[in-house]
Amino acid sequence: MKRIVIAAPQSGSGKTTVTLGIMAALKRRGLAVAPFKVGPDFIDPGYHRLVTGAPSVNLDGWICDPGFVRESFSLHAGGADIAVIEGVMGLFDGIDGVSESGSTAQIAKELAAPVVLVVDARSQARSAAALVHGFASFDPALRVAGVVFNNVGSANHERILREALAAHLPDLALLGCLPRDPALAIPSRHLGLVTAEDNPLSGAFVAHLAEVVEAHLDLEALLETGAAADAASVREGATARASAVAGEAPEPERVRVAVARDAAFCFVYQDNLRLLQQAGAELCYFSPLADPALPEGIGGMYLPGGYPELFAGELAANEPMKQEVARSVEGGLPVYAECGGFIYLTQGVVADRQAHRFVGLFPVQTRMLPRRKALGYREVELLAEGAIGGRGATARGHEFHYSEMEEMPAHVERLYRVSRKGVDLGREGYHYKNCLASYIHLHFGSSPGIATSFVQRCRAYKKGSLT
Q1: Which pLDDT does position 388 carry in this prediction?
Q2: Which of 138, 360, 403, 453 is 20 to 30 Å from 435 at the Cα level?
Q3: Are both 186 and 298 inside the same structural domain?
Q4: Buried b or exposed e, range 156-174, using 16+ CB within 10 angstroms
C-alpha cells in the first residue's frame, strides 16, 4: 500500500483543500483511499469521510505512543490502495520548539511516508524555492519528496516558480501549481472550518475540486512519490502488535453503549469508538437534537464534543431527551462526557445573548466568548476511581474551546489532576454519581485501560453490581 503525507510550512497554506482534491481525484480513478489526519483535529476528518466514503483517523505522536500510531494506521489502512495523511499546522510544529513530538514530521517518519509540501505561493516568486529548501533540508531523516505550489496567480508566476525550484532543488519533484480559485474556499468559524455535518460538500464542489487537481497536478508522479518504501516493516510490526493485543483475552461480553452523534455532537476520535468496540461495547448512536429517547437496553453513554451552542435552541427544546438523560445519570448509568457533551449536562448555555436550558446535572451555566478560551495538549491523572479507570491512571488529550463556565461549586468532586509538559494546570474532570464530564477530549489510545474500564462499568451497571 502506498502512503503520502500532505504537509505545509504553516497553517492556512491550503493543505486541506489540496488533500481533499487529491483524495477526490484518486477516488475517481477507482482507487480505495484511506484518509488520516495528524493531530487532534475533528473537523478535517469529517470532510475526508465525505470525499472518500471511509472514516478518517487521527494520528498523534504526543498523545499516543509510536506502537499505537503504527497499529492504528495498519488497521485502518488495510485493504486500501493508498493512504493520504493530512498534516497539522506547519510540518515541524508540535508541542514545543525543541522536539518533533506531536508534529506532522514525527508521523511521517514513524510511518516511513514521503511528504508532499503544499506552499502558498501568493506574493512569492523565487523566494518560494528558498522556503522549500529550508523545509527539505531541516531534518535529514525526513523525506520531502514533492512540492505543490498553491494560489498561483498567472502563467508567468508559475513559470518563475518552476524555474526557481528546478535551479535550486533539481531533485525535488514539482507535482503541480494550483491556480487561485475562490470557488474552492471552505467556510470557517471559531473552531476552524465549518463541520462536514453542517456544511456537507456538494457533489458539484467535490467534482470541481477533483477536476482542478487532475488538470494541474501530476497524479502519476504523486502516486510514484507515494511508493511504499519501507512500508512492509511498518505494517508487519503493527500487525504483530495488534494480533498480540487481540490474542490476550477471549471475545468480551457485549454491552450496549449509547453514543451521541449528530450535527451538535460530531467531535469524536475514530479510535475511541474502535477501542470501545474492542473492549466489548455494542455502539448504538442517537441524536440529542432529534430523538425523543435514548436507545433501549443501554449500559452506558458517551457524549462527545461538538457545537452544542450552534444548536442550543433545538437541544433545549427537546425536553423528553433532556429528562431521560437526567434520569439515566441519576439512576447510576455510567456516562463519559467531554467538551460539548459536558456543556450539554450543565444548566445551559448563553449564546447570542440568549440563555438556553440544557440537562442541568452540573450546577453551572456556560457562555460563549468572542475569543478562544483554551487550546493545547493536556495530560490527566485520576485522583480517584471513576468511569474511565482507577486512581493513578493517566491519559492524554486536547482542549480547545471558546466557551467559559461559571466556577464549579466545591462540593462537586474533581477526578483529574491536569498538566501540560509537567506544569500543573489545576483540577478538573467533574464527577457526579457514575458520570464523568470534562472539557478535555481524551484519546483512549493514550491509555489502553480507558475503554476497558468504561465498558466494564457499563456491564456491571447492566448486571446491577455497580455501586
Answers
A1: 96
A2: 403
A3: no
A4: ebbebbeebbeeebeebbb
Q: Is 313 in the same domain as 286?
A: yes
Residues 112, 237 share a domain: yes
Q: Which amino acid is at 121?
A: A
Instruction: Tell me the β-bridge partners of 441.
Output: 398
**What's the pLDDT tens digit per position in 146-160?**
999 999 999 999 999
Is the separation of the CB atoms in 68 and 445 below 8 Å? yes
331-355 pLDDT, tens digit per residue, is 999 999 999 999 999 999 998 789 9
DSSP-derived pairing of the beta strands 255-260 and 300-303: parallel
Q: What is the pLDDT of residue 371?
A: 75
Strands 188-189, 192-193: pairing kind: antiparallel
Question: Nearest Cα to 164, choosing from 137, 126, 203?
Answer: 126
Query: What number is the average pLDDT over the span 260-275?
Result: 96
Domain count of the chain?
A: 2
Q: In the chain, what are the helix, strand and coil shares in percent, each to the nearest 5?
A: 35, 30, 35
3-state secondary structure (DSSP) of residue 458: helix
Residue 378 has pLDDT above 80, yes or no: yes
d(CA 368, CA 197): 21
How high does pLDDT run on average in the chain?
A: 91
State how far the Cα of 456 lies from the Cα of 382, in Å rounded to an integer: 17
Which one, of 78, 28, 309, lies nearest residue 195 by Cα? 309
> CA 172 to CA 142: how far, in whole Å?
13
CATH number of the structural domain spanning residue 120: 3.40.50.300
> 241, 261, 291 — which closes off a domain?
241
Tell whether 97 and 132 lie within a shared domain: yes
pLDDT for residue 244: 46
Residue 214 has pLDDT above 90, yes or no: yes
User: pTM of this prediction?
Assistant: 0.92
Residue 411 has pLDDT above 50, yes or no: yes
| Cβ neighbours of residue 123 closer than 8 Å, sequence gap 6 or more | none
Catalytic residue among 64, 339, 435, 458: 339
The CA–CA distances, whole Å, from 467 to 349, 443, 458, 463 equal 31, 26, 12, 11
Q: What percent of the chain has pLDDT over 90?
A: 82
The question of whether 64 is a catalytic residue gets the answer: no
| Nearest-angstrom CA–CA distance, 373 and 100 | 26
pLDDT at 194: 58
